[in-house]
Amino acid sequence: MPASLEAFLRPRSIALIGASHRPNSLGGRVTARLFGSGYRGRLIPVNPRPDPIHGIAPVASVTQAAGPIDLALIAIPRDAVRGAVLECLDKRIPAICVVTAGFKEVDAEGAALERELVALVRAGGARMIGPNCMGITNTSPQCSFDATFSPVPPLAGPIGFASQSGALGVAVLNICHQRQIGFSQFVSMGNKADVAEDDLLEAWEDDPEVLVIAMYLESVRDPQRFLAAARRVTKKKPVVVVKAGRTAAGARAASSHTGALAGADQGAEALFRQAGVLRVDTVEEMLETALALSRCALPAGNRVAVLTNAGGPGIMAADALDRAGLRVAELEPATRDALRALLPREAAVTNPVDMIASAGPAEYGACLDLLLRDPGVDAAVPVVVTPPAHDALDVLASLDASAAGCAKPVLGVFMVGEDLKRLAATPGAIPTFPQPEGAARALADMVRSARWRGAGPGTPFEGAADDAAIAVRLAARAAAGGGYLDAAATWQVLDAAAIPGAAWRALPAGSGMAALADAAEAVGFPVVLKATGDALVHKSDAGGVALDLRDRTAVERAVAAMSSALVRAGQVPDSWEWFVQAFRPGGREVIVGATRDPHYGPLVMFGLGGRFVEVFHDVVFGLAPLAREDAERMVRGIRGLALLTGTRGEAGVDLAPAVETLGRVARLMERHPSIAELDLNPLLLYPEAGRAAAVDARIRVAAAPAPEPGGAR
User: Fold this and answer.
1) Omega before 352 cis (within 30°)?
2) Is there a single domain that holds both residue 71 and residue 129?
3) Which end of the chain has fewer CB atoms surrounding its CB within 10 Å, N or C?
4) Cβ(198)–Cβ(226) under 8 Å?
């Protein structure tokens, strides 16, 4: 654990600035929780009144306290916080937690004060959690303290939990009491003015008391730092995140396909995917997944056995597993024979295994033991409907006995109503769920975590690009106020970036038919003729594209017809440029694109391309820089992958060029920040190894920033 956070999470002494007897005050609630938590270190109440607090005489200021102090908790009115922080810095307290609210979440004055606090703390060599937070808890016996104002204390357990929302942190602790889920450490980050989620990832990375990290986030302060930390941490232990803000009230206007498809949440989604973080939709899913991960070994695969005493719930479980991307395992003949010998004739011994309603603890334990021994089973989900003649706790005990010592995870579904709390409170028991869907989601996350842990480190893309030539083309457009590159500059940039494309020639407006025919001959027949220009966003809709022109005569006829069509569509004569490109028939159309998210940085996109890209929305985003494995996951992550790999006897295409193109586009965006948006649509993929060609492309460049006043002339 970094030394800068050790004082927060394992303090040897704690000062509470604002300690109070008043039960309804903020300081009073924190005081009651802290002094009642069994903390073994030294507690220093800070209050100008001399009356003892919980039997300890307070000091008027932390500067008057004897000896060193590791952690200061501040729970006083906002206007007094600055002075308290300065006193903490004078005392050389390394960790400061500001519980007080009323900062940037309230008004501009509060935001300015918050910025000042951060500057003071950093200049003083300290760290700060908050402001506007709920506090900190550590439940380990060696350092048990609860410095929060939660109405319920957290239960002990192996989960480290961080919440950006204090109110939601309280709600989570309430839910955890009902489900008997425990935390080793809990941190309410509040406004994240200093300490944030990336710091806590590093703090918990090698902490043996934290087996699983869970987080509720509304934002990611530093995406690149989070990515670097999370990619490392998730190879050691799972990280489960609920990230609020999946939708936006209004979509950002964008003229490229990629910009239109990159919604408010794509940056976060790409970040978590590339970091190996398990993103879930709800707090309940976060807690259930964290519970399963903290109590079970990771599965070796996705083949699941279902064991039940009722047919309907067993079918529900099988459906839930299938929807979660898991497989209902095919049982070995020997397993089915053993089950048949053990169960009544009416029982079903295929998967799901239905033992019928008479099954009790003995049958559950014996059948689970057989299923876990099957080499074709990676995990098991026993589903228990209230046994007519047995106690559900006895069934749980029998399942626990069979699961003990087995490397395969067992997630129990107990559809038993109020008994669930009794079951969850059983020490060391398998994780229990009230419905099959929760168990299926958690198990699917466990499979994803296992696959991520088993994958090697990211492999960087190789290959050179002519960055100097690219920079020249981009700088000229940026200096002219930004906007889309013309066709010639676009393809010059792509060629310099080693992105595969069909051979081309660009000719200015007013070029004669003979010149266009000569260009087509130089490219090599058959060719495509296009009209390009700032006003021609969708060229084909305006009649600005002619395909499969096989000789000079066909080119000349196309020029005449296209000129007339464009004028009828409202284009000014000779306002467009001509673009001649080698015709590449066949192939499967995909899109590779990129946009620049204002917070997450360059996003790269892959999906099914062509005219219907914004209809099907079958795209996946990644965050630059991309490792080769990231690009491969993107290509294989679209819903319509079978259209590329082959279906109904149709040959598939080679996906390697798509992976390579994604890497080169990501590199282009990373090296050249003036590129705002980029589309290769379509990029054609073919069955032949290595064959691919981009046949249409657009690159939008941001305007160069205005020179600062008083700068060099």
Assistant:
1) yes
2) yes
3) C
4) yes
8 Å CB contact between 76 and 17: yes
Tokens (6 digits) for 279:
């993103």
- Cα torsion 539, 541, 544, 545: sign: positive
Helix/strand/coil for 274: helix
> What secondary structure does DSSP assign to 314-373, as a single string?
HHHHHHHHHHTT-EE----HHHHHHHHHHS-TTSB-SSSEE--TT--HHHHHHHHHHHHH
- Residue 226's alpha-carbon distances to 8, 50, 79, 450, in angstroms, are 20, 45, 33, 21
Sign of dihedral through CA atoms 64, 68, 74, 80? positive
C-alpha Rg value of the chain to the nearest Å: 31
pLDDT confidence of residue 668: 97
CA 176/CA 430 separation, integer angstroms? 16
The amino acid sitting at 641 is L
Same-domain check for residues 425 and 507: no
Nearest to 603 by CA among 680, 657, 681, 662: 662
Evaluate whether 352 touches 328 at the Cβ level (below 8 Å): yes
The one-letter amino acid at 183: F
111 and 8 inside one domain? yes
The one-letter amino acid at 157: G
Q: Are residues 165 and 61 in the same domain?
A: yes
User: Apex CA 712: angle with CA 708 and CA 713, to 5°?
Assistant: 105
Distance CA(545)–CA(541), nearest Å, equals 9
466 vs 473: CA distance, rounded Å: 11
CATH number of the domain at 199, please.
3.40.50.720
Q: Answer whether residue 250 shows pLDDT above 50.
A: no
Taking the chain, what is the end-to-end CA distance rounded to the nearest angstrom? 50
Report DSSP state, residue 80.
Answer: G
- What DSSP designation does 180 have? T
Instruction: Give the C-alpha separation, 564 to 649, whole Å.
Output: 44
Q: Which domain holds residue 132?
A: 3-210
Residues 402 and 533 both lie in one domain: no
- Residues β-bridged to residue 150: none
Flag whether pLDDT at 256 surpasses 50: no
> H/E element holding 28?
helix 26-35
Please check whether residues 200 and 306 belong to one and the same domain. no
Q: Which long-range contacts (CB under 8 A, 24 or more apart) does 609-616 make?
A: 609/681, 609/682, 609/683, 610/681, 610/682, 611/540, 613/257, 613/261, 613/681, 614/257, 614/260, 614/261, 616/640
> 60 and 191: one domain?
yes
pLDDT, mean of residues 177-189? 90
